[in-house]
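Fold this complex.
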Amino acid sequence: MTTAATTDLFPAERVERGESPFTKARKRFFRHRLAMVGLVILTTMILMALFAPLLTQYSPIEINLTNMSQPPGNGHLLGTDTTGRDVWARILYAGRVSLSVGLVAVTLSTLIGVLIGGLAGYAGGRLDMLLMRFTDMVMTFPSLVIIITVASVLGPSIYNTMLVIGMLTWTGTARLVRGQILSLREQQFVLAARSMGVAPRSIMSKHLLSNVVSSVTVAATFGMASAILQEASLSFLGLGVQSPTPSWGNMLRDAQTLSILEGMPWLWLSPGIMIALAVLSINFIGDGLRDAVDPRSLK
Amino acid sequence: MSVQMNVASKDLLAVNDLKTYFPIRAGVFQRVVANVKAVDGVSFAVREGETFGLVGESGCGKTTISRTILRLQKATAGNVFFDGEDVFAKKGKDLTALRRQMQIVFQDPYASLDPRMPVGDIIAEGLLIQGMKEADARNKIVQEMLDKVGLNPYHAHRYPHEFSGGQRQRIGIARALALQPKFIICDEPVSALDVSIQSQILNLLKSLQKEFGITYLFVAHDLSVVEHISDRVGVMYLGKMVEMSSREKLFRTPLHPYTQALLSAIPVADPRRKRDRIVLTGEIPSPVNPPSGCRFHPRCPLAIDRCKVDEPVFEEKRGGHWAACHLVERVGGATPDLQSHKAAANIAAVPA
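Structure:
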């Protein structure tokens, strides 16, 4: 390079942008096989739930007493239940319920967790102690007892199910965020920002939260899998989503009798497989995300 | 020329009896049970345009001093004047304006840059805070600063993880430089770098000083680095300043036994040259409960009874040469000679 080259500081091939940590993580994620399998399965399930009316001509709640307990086939892909409702239709519409309960509950719990954890981690001192003791307290709540109480006071419904799961599962996220913020705020790049006069609020959003996004995303993914499971068990106990609205959990509940267990496997096998597939694929995605954002793989 | 400079130069930074304690809290009510006296009554002044080197072992309070000056750490007592203005009294806009004048370069080039920001944004962050709203103007300065520190302007779009340690430290310097400060604190800026890179960074700092007339407070534990870059040097031990003078005087005729011991530990790149090392025994005591009298007395090979009870005053022993030691007479007195005291005072001397 000669001195004349100073006018030509931007040769075309040099202006390419650097790879942000986010871009690198995304590339690693899309190379993760198991995560891709999970992503394909989950996307299929979401599409199935979204386009349910196009995939079946039956209503999930309409009773047809002339066509009860039919095995799969004969116009009903997965047969019918004891009141003649089409199981395939119910599985599709239940997907809407179960997946959205999982999504809303985990969004709620992540918001609460990030808020409380972030506040505790950044403020420190007394507020930190107060918030973390509160978190410990929530962790000690026997969730089933609370849920039964809420269900009996507010009445069991899909919204209360979302609310209760969200309100009881944020503690892990709060601890995670607090711990990370505590260590991040002593980092020299945060001190540098402070020495330049960056306001605490922008330090929080620009330097601290942006650095916990990846681990919170991973936690939220695993959280969604467990929220779906929780919804299933609540509905199974009759405390969650109520009939006739189908959810995978209350479909299992409806299939509890011995005669169904022995004689009509399509009634419990199909929702069971859906729950297992959903949870498994989300966990695969979570694994992939975790590997992708692992700082040790960030060179 | 240097004489002229000295006559003309005034104190840019004055630190008076600065104390920074870290409370140790315990129990349910978080009662303060003790204090870590990281900085315990330090006074010094940095003249405009000079480089003031601050040396001492790890844990002696060097870094705490620099962070307290920048108000990254709350001072317990004392005050700091920058350009005649009380640093600790500033608030709001005045404080932001002051922050523009004082910047810092950190020790760890890996931890001091936000991994999620492109280099250009990192350098421009301070400009944005200081009210430079136009992106074009900011970009221009970013390009200029990258050029000044020996990086390429197209590096602005890259992320910190794409650079080596030395390059990252250059980015850190560019960030400090972007605000055109009068004063930069270099907090061990080269101790995390390879020796070959160290000299490049030191020379860069020197040439920037020449170009922009920046004043440095250079914190380090490496004496040869401090000797290379400083005009004046202060030596700290356990939260106190023990000796301060011009570089030449300090390295040629150290007054304080601690400084003498430190200097004797500098390796000499000549296997034929014999030298006696003064090896200090014991560890640096805890700053929670510092020794009575002179803080150095438990490790001092020359300590007398008075040192255990009476804390020496930090005073000007010779013209411009300050020290805190009972054994150093003011003006004209003999320098305590460690080498000749060796036999009498039980010192381990290790021939190199």
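Chain B touches chain A at residues 30, 67, 70, 72, 95-96, 99-100, 102-104, 106-108, 111-119, 122, 125-126, 129-130, 143, 152-154, 157-159, 161-162, 172, 175, 179 (CB under 8 Å).
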